[in-house]
Amino acid sequence: MELRSITKKNFFLNPANLKRPWREDYLAMFSSQWQGVTTDPDLMMIPIDDHLVHRGDGVFEVMRCVSGQIYQMEGHLQRLDRSAKAISLNLPSDYGRIRELIGKLVVTGGERDCIIKVILSRGPGGFGISPFESPLSHMYINVIRFRNLPDEYYEDGIPLVTSSIPIKKSFFANIKSCNYLPNVLMKMEAIEAGCKYSVGLDEDGFLAEGSTENVGILSADHVLKFPGFERTLSGITVNRVFQLADQLVKEDLIRGVEFARISLEEAYQAEEMFLTGTSLGVLPVVIYDGKRIGQGKPGRVYARLSGLLWKDMTENRDVLTRIDWEPGDSV
Ligand SMILES: Cc1ncc(COP(=O)(O)O)c(C=O)c1O
Q1: Cβ of residue 61 lying under 6 Å from some atom of ligand 1
Q2: CA distance readout (Å), 90 to 78, 136, 264
């Protein structure tokens, strides 16, 4: 067999490197290895010997820029700090500039609605397992065009299935690590079941979370319930939705809102069901394990919650970080 020799010179002449249409949404990337920014997807690469790649040794965050302002940036950065601390990851030297870097990168990307993915990695240092091999941790930030889910997901609701993949133990569930194999398998299972989403259960049969979403129900007796964070990631969105739901109590639309254990049976009997997450907001579930939830269409509580969340995402200056789009714009 003859193998083509790849060199720095011919690498980008290889047509196989250019045929990757999914990259058209990649707007900008910063890497602490190059100390710079690129908008060329061909250059958005991570070295194979970064322990992030071959051991999943790193943590990440995903935040959303809405109409030019970043929603809940501080909450996401606090969770990133917690995740890094939990795995004793030394913060990369550029970490102190993260807010400024994110702002600059979003402007470089040029899209006011985008997703920002920050990865902190153990860094390059060989192919072993020991994290002490890597002398320096690194930071990668990608800005990706935001693509909303199809309107019908929100208008008609989505089906959900229970996953058979064992969920993470508490310690791992609460670290947003780059080790997402269980989550990947949950997604695979959902798609193979003809759904887009699945939800895991703990060993006692109580609802945990989706592959990248938190889950909640409006119980048959009109209490809004979300699983606590013993076995799930403390989602920025679900925490905010929880606070916003106070308004629904005042409006007498629900009797209360609580973190609680939710059995499968209780979920099947729910009036309404939802998923929450940074990029999808609140998504109504209308079929769960083939059973109709409530009236089988997105309900009033969903409509009110998603309306309140959207208002928060677009108007609440306390949780929106302005970006310096024009010279003279204040940050
Ligand atoms: C496992 C998991 N659960 C829940 C969530 C939802 O969290 P957030 O609302 O902060 O996006 C995510 C987000 O990516 C996740 O990966």
Answers
A1: no
A2: 15, 8, 41
- pLDDT tens digits, one per residue of 165-220: 999 999 999 999 999 999 999 999 999 999 999 999 999 999 999 999 999 999 99
Query: How far, in Å, is the centroid of ligand 1 from the Cα of 236?
Result: 7
The finding on whether 214 has its CB within 6 A of some atom of ligand 1 is yes
Residues of the chain with CATH 3.30.470.10: 11-145
Pick the CATH number of 11-145 from 3.30.470.10, 3.20.20.370, 3.40.50.920, 3.40.50.970: 3.30.470.10
Catalytic residue annotation:
176
Q: Where along the chain do the CATH 3.20.10.10 domains lie?
A: 151-315
Nearest CA-CA partner of 192 in 164, 233, 152, 166: 164
Q: Which atom of ligand 1 sits closest to the CA of residue 173?
A: 1
Q: Judge if the beta carbon of residue 262 lies within 6 A of ligand 1.
A: no
pLDDT tens profile 229-258: 999 999 999 999 999 999 999 999 999 999
Those residues with Cβ within 8 angstroms of residue 155's Cβ, 6 or more apart along the chain or in another chain: 298
CA 213 to ligand 1 centroid distance, Å: 5
The CATH fold assigned to 151-315 is D-amino Acid Aminotransferase; Chain A, domain 2 (3.20.10)
What does residue 173 show for φ and ψ, rounded to 5 degrees? -65, -30
Ligand 1 geometric centre to CA of 235 (Å): 5
pTM of the predicted model as reported, rounded to 2 decimal places: 0.95
**For atom 5 of ligand 1, which residue has the closest CA?**
213
**For the residues 259-267, what does the mean pLDDT come to?**
98
- The atom of ligand 1 lying closest to the CA of 237 is 9
CB of 236 sitting under 6 A from ligand 1: yes
For the residues of 229-267, what is the DSSP string, one character each? Answer: SSSS---HHHHHHHHHTHHHHHTTSSSEEEE---BHHHH
